[in-house]
Amino acid sequence: MVFFVGHVFSDDSYYSYLSCTISDGNFAENYLGYPIFKLRVGHLYLTALFYRLFGINEFITILPVLLFSIINLFVAFKISYLVTSNCSISLISAFIVAVIPTEIVFATVSFVDLQSSVLINCGIYFYLLARNQHKFALIYLAAFFFGLSFLFKETIYFMFPIFFSFFIFELINKYRTYKYTLVVLVGLISIPIIEGLIYYLINNDFFYRNHILQENFKFAYYDFFPNTLQNSLESSYFNLVLNQIVQNLKYIFLRRFYLFLPLFGLLIFVFSNKKKYNHFIVFWFFGLIITMCCLPISIDTYRLLNLRNSWYIIPLFVPTALIIATYLNQVLPRLKIAAFLILFAGSMYMSNQYLLFFQKPDLNEMKEFLESLLFIMHKRDPKTEWVANKIFECDKTPYVIRVYTSINPDDMSRGVGTDAIRCGVFSSKGEWVFGTKRVNRTKNWQKSIQARIQELEERLQLQHTKYQSAVQI
User: Fold this and answer.
1) Do 403 and 321 lie in a common domain?
2) Distance between CA atoms of 165 and 177, rounded to whole angstroms?
3) Is residue 317, in this structure, part of any structural domain at all?
4) For residue 226, cis peptide bond before it (omega within 30 degrees of 0)
5) By residue range, what is the domain housing residue 466?
């Protein structure tokens, strides 16, 4: 909790808003954010449940993610022990996962990537356990966790080519465990079919997910390939695809936020005895690298995922930790201790760098200032998410000066995120009267907002002065 981030006024704003609408019984009413977030009902309903049980506040918003991150350490240990039968390797694996800066920081941010990855890891554990113990009941439990992860994010479909490749590998080598992999493949194919049937019963649209995906691409086209690349209108499509793949590889291997662990995992595997690694772990590690770089994320066109956002790489952490732990367990004790110290020091430094990335001091100032304006940070309004109200009376007529993060359609079309802050005057009935220009979160944003509020008060006073003069005439 030393590196607690909390609310960052990004994707978590939309998730929090949708979870609140679930609590209020009017799901997605007046929602103007990313359409695809409405499909991530696992995260939304879980957060709404925590809101109902413990109330609505910043810590409760991130509590489900924090619990999942703790579970992930236990799952990493169990998977390692299952494939190596070595407690030392298992402890090292859990330690490596625990000190990855991205894992630490995103345990305190209400994003869905960590939760989805943990559920996938749970499914993989039961899949490997079913193969080891030859119990078919366990493979259905694995399929259940894979399906559950789909309700948080669609990351599980990066695993489909991996299981399919491993299934072919088992058939070629005549492993009897191929039937367990076959059940997983059938389960993965069934997930969108079952979801489609549910949406068909709800809103008479079997392809609801696909329609939402198309809306999402149109809504935030600037976030998706090829618009994420420079000269996207000038280069050929083949060159754009190649460029995106190269960039994705760079984001995986040459990123200090992961302490370059995927790169070390790759080098360790290439230059060490490959026979000591479990076959599935190798498929898992290299398969994720290939699928995350090259697998399209849309049905109608070859649209690649842009891995620039560091939290997209979270699914790769456990197999990476397994490969590195297997190697570290064999080195001399003093080298092992040195490696642990380097990992820990690098983790502390880069976790602090994450706080700078999220502009934590500015975030904290913003939250404190909104609270000091009298109140309700989580009062919801059709055009606002995080709101602070200040009652202002002018000649006994009550008005509300409201400071809020704007999510109106005009801002969305220009690609303006929730960092933009607006100040406006509303009547006691909630009707908009007038407002000021948008305030961006810069070093002087707090003074800017105070100046905007003073400007609004002066305009209100002037408006009533003119009205009184007109009445007297």
Assistant:
1) no
2) 14
3) yes
4) yes
5) 362-472
400 neighbors 390 (Cβ within 8 angstroms): yes
Angle between helices 333-357 and 87-99 (to 10 degrees): 20
The three-point CA angle 435-437-442 to 5° equals: 130
pLDDT at 393: 46
One domain, residues 269 and 404: no
Query: Is the residue at 5 inside a domain?
Result: no
148 contacts: CB under 8 Å, gap ≥ 6:
42, 119
Instruction: Assess whether 410 and 427 both reside in one domain.
Output: yes
Q: Which residues contact 70 (CB under 8 A, 6 or more apart)?
A: 107
pLDDT, averaged per 10 consecutive residues of the chain (473 residues), comes to 77 88 86 89 95 88 95 97 95 97 93 96 97 92 96 95 97 93 96 94 92 87 77 76 92 93 95 87 96 86 87 96 94 93 95 83 67 40 40 50 47 38 58 56 58 68 53 39
* Neighbour order of strands in the sheet with 397-406: 384-394, 397-406, 421-427, 432-435
* pLDDT of the residue at 296: 86
**Do 291 and 211 belong together in one domain?**
yes
- Residue from 322, 336, 317 nearest 276 by CA: 322
pTM for this model (two decimals): 0.80
Residue linked to tokens 């929090």:
16
- Answer yes or no: is 41 within a domain: no
